[in-house]
Design brief:
The chain has helices at 8-21, 69-84, 101-108, and strands at residues 2-5, 34-41, 44-53, 57-65, 90-96, 111-115, 119-125. By secondary structure, it is of the alpha+beta class. The protein is globular, with a radius of gyration of 15 Å.
């Protein structure tokens, strides 16, 4: 699987096609505070990760992936690692219920903010190291 940064000049159609597969995810349009990665396998775009930088925290705005569960949870780990590098205090994201959810939350020191049947909204705090 190949990750590449979204470039609206070249990738808008690919992103739109993926977003059209899940219209319930469509909440907004990319901004200058958006970090978007397209995921490709065998020359086919199979997903995307959209992280939005807010004032004090990071949010996983949209996530779509066609692939196995192990790779999907690996991508959620990638979201946490990428978000942590943004210098914000926390990450707020939705993760699927069941499966590896509890293991994932424990691994990253997260807390469930809202639990639903299909997914939970989780907040993962980051320790910010201020250099003098």
């Amino acid at each position: 699987m190949i990750f590449y940064s979204y470039n609206p000049e070249f990738d808008k159609q690919s992103l739109d096609n993926l977003r059209n597969l899940n219209p319930e995810l469509r909440s907004q349009e990319p901004t200058k505070e958006s970090i978007i990665y397209l995921l490709e396998s065998n020359d086919t775009t199979i997903g995307y990760i959209w992280i939005e930088l807010m004032t004090n925290h990071v949010e996983l705005a949209e996530f779509y992936f066609v692939g196995n569960d192990t790779k999907k949870w690996g991508l959620y780990d990638f979201v946490v690692k990428t978000s942590k590098k943004q210098g914000k205090t926390s990450l707020i994201m939705k993760v699927p219920s069941g499966g590896r959810q509890e293991e994932f939350i424990e691994k990253w020191g997260g807390k469930v903010r809202e639990r639903k049947i299909e997914e939970s909204i989780v907040k993962i705090p980051f320790q910010i190291n201020h250099r003098s």
